[in-house]
């Protein structure tokens, strides 16, 4: 590799960048791991929820999700996982929104950004399904909020979902 140096930037001697070792294992898992199907499925569900939210049409959530999933040609396993979350939001959206509104102190759901609102709905639906550990659902939701929103979004989502899970008696 060529010696790339910018004297104004580097204080010390140049060195090769640190790259993950291929083929090495830590605790039985490869050091470079692909995202799990559930993690990718949550991101796909978020895309569908966000698309419906931006269009302002929660009544057509299933149709919008189908269109998003078809357009992205997502993996069948991801689609199955994401579709279950979307179906829960479609079926119980009003109930989930009302429960979330109770724990968003001084914030109406309508005032939140579309990403934050969509992540909260996704996590509330997944908690209602009771198929994944609560801490996994919360961690993944915070990660999605940070990935697609901002660090501030992630902190907000974390606080709301913590209060929501405690209210449900899950934490």
Give your account of this protein's structure:
This protein is mostly helical. It has a single domain, classed as N-utilizing Substance Protein B Homolog, Chain A, CATH 1.10.940. Helices cover 63% and strands 2% of the residues. It has a two-stranded antiparallel sheet. It is globular and about 40 Å long. The termini are far apart.
| Secondary-structure element order, N to C | EEHHHHHH
Strand order of the largest sheet: 1-2
* C-alpha Rg (nearest Å): 20 Å
Which structural category do the helix and sheet elements fall into?
mainly alpha
CATH architecture: Orthogonal Bundle
Mean pLDDT: 84
**What multimeric state do the chains show?**
single chain
Global morphology: globular
Total strand segments: 2
Query: Major β-sheet, in short?
Result: 2 strands, antiparallel
Determine and state the CATH class. Mainly Alpha
Strand content: under 5%
CATH topology (level 3) name: N-utilizing Substance Protein B Homolog, Chain A
Question: How large is the count of helical segments?
Answer: 6
**Name given to the CATH homologous superfamily:** NusB-like
State the helicity in percent bands: 55-70%
What is the end-to-end distance? 51 Å
**Number of self-contained structural domains:** 1
Uncertain ranges: 1-33
């Amino acid at each position: 590799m060529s010696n790339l140096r910018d004297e104004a930037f580097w204080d010390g001697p140049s060195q090769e960048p640190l790259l993950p070792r291929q083929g090495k294992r830590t605790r039985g898992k490869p050091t470079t791991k692909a995202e799990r199907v559930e993690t990718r499925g949550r991101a796909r569900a978020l895309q569908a929820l966000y698309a419906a939210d931006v269009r302002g049409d929660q009544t057509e959530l299933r149709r919008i999700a189908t269109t998003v999933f078809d357009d992205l040609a997502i993996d069948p396993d991801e689609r199955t996982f994401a579709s279950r979350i979307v179906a829960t939001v479609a079926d119980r959206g009003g109930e989930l929104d009302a429960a979330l509104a109770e724990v968003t102190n001084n914030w109406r759901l309508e005032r939140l950004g579309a990403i934050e609102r969509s992540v909260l709905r996704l996590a509330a639906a997944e908690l209602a399904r009771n198929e994944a550990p609560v801490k996994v659902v919360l961690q993944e939701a915070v990660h999605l909020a940070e990935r697609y929103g901002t660090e501030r979004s992630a902190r907000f989502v974390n606080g709301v979902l913590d209060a929501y899970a405690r209210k449900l008696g899950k934490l």
